[in-house]
Amino acid sequence: MKFDTIIIGGGLSGLVAGNYLVRHGQRCVIISSGQSALHFSSGSLDLLNFLPDGTAVSHPSTSVAQLVAQAPAHPYAKLGVVKFNELTAKAERLMEEWGIQLEGSALKNHYRVTPMGTLKPTWLTLKEYAVAESENSLPWKKVAIFNVAGFLDFYTQFVVDEFRKWGTECESHLIHLPALENLRKNPSEMRSVNIARLFDQTENLDLLALDLQREAGDVEVILLPAVLGITQTGTLKYLCQKTGKEIRVLPTLPPSVPGIRTQQRLRKCFQDQGGVYMLGDTVLRAEKEQDRVVRLYSYNHGDIPFVAENVILASGSYFSQGLVAAPDRVYEPIFDLDVDFVAHRNQWYDLNVFARQPYHGFGVKTTADFRGLYRGQMLKNVYVAGALLEGFNPIKEGCGGGVSVLTALYVAEQILSK
User: Would 115 be classed as within a structural domain?
Assistant: First the structure.
């Protein structure tokens, strides 16, 4: 099977790179082993919330120069300040064109509401979510928060308690609908995705709208857990029209319904443009000739090789086994690319779970243009993007989404420039 570019990994990085390449005429395949981190998404993409020294960031586009000075191995440092700002603007435009409705800008972070009701800085957030412009206040004085009766992955009281700290009056209500009764009989089925499937049906949305109208009163906004339909679009707009109220959603514990919808939308966009998406397959090994990868073999296709001019490795970090931690080393399992990690295992982590964890910064070593290194030598046609890169801490720096999107766009541009 011959392609222009093979992309390993069907998460955010792989889908962004794939969509950009097929739009520009490349024949691409994405090989995805299964669920990506998008299925556990908060509904937001972080760009840069803190510098490595812990300094809070309000304006990523101007603060990135400080990050480059503090962390020369960071993916943003390899991009450089000018390219960083160019790619953030491009990403914001492309996401809109691909049908992902987001709000936010790299010029200034806004604040998303977490599942616990606290406020966290971020770059882009799906437009249906509750957000604030200030870290010290909410945009509403009176809200009604609804939860599905028996749904244990959304803690209404925690949100109410936090909102009241900001001076926002809160009312909490439970949703009781006949369609939910069968789910409620089995607590293991009362999960966000199963609830969302029920709200794909208009009759259930109509009943929900009546319930919201009856209970909400004179509040400024109605807040719901993010369970409003898994396949249908426009469910929130429909509810707003039916109730005459502004309605926003709040993130739940995983799985993330809006995250799944985002992945589905990006995948559909890729396939509609001619991309080939192979779900449930795993790349097992690669054959190299000198400084190039010439063939890839996967679990599902046995001895039938994948052949391409270029390969993008966007297989994610530990979560998706793009990186594997053995007792004595951290390694990349497909190409055995060089990985930056600390030799002594007891230095991989801090016993304080809230501290900066060293293993978060481990990752694949690359050249300045994100080509993978194998035993110190560059592989000319293997590019690396996203979570498995070295030199950044997605948790403490709040930059995971930005690294995934920007490096994917950058390597796609490098491939097209050939």
Answer: no
Grouping H, G, I as helix, E, B as strand and the rest as coil, residue 381 is strand
Q: Which two tokens stand for residue 33?
A: 């082993």
Residues 84 and 182 grouped into a single domain: no
Task: Return d(Cα 146, Cα 190) in angstroms, integer.
Answer: 16
What CATH number is given to the structural domain containing 168? Answer: 3.40.50
Three-state DSSP state, 372 = strand
For the entire predicted model, the pTM comes to: 0.95
The string of DSSP codes covering 59-106 is -HHHHHHHHHHH-TTSHHHHH-HHHHHHHHHHHHHHHHHTT--EE-BT
Residues 295 and 180 both lie in one domain: no
Task: Name the strand (E) or helix (H) holding 411.
Answer: helix 400-417
Rounded to the nearest 10°, the torsion over CA 322, 325, 331, 333 is -50
pLDDT (tens digit, 9 = 90+) per residue, 147-200? 999 898 999 999 999 999 999 999 999 999 888 887 777 767 788 999 999 999
Cβ neighbour number for residue 253 with a 10 Å cutoff: 15
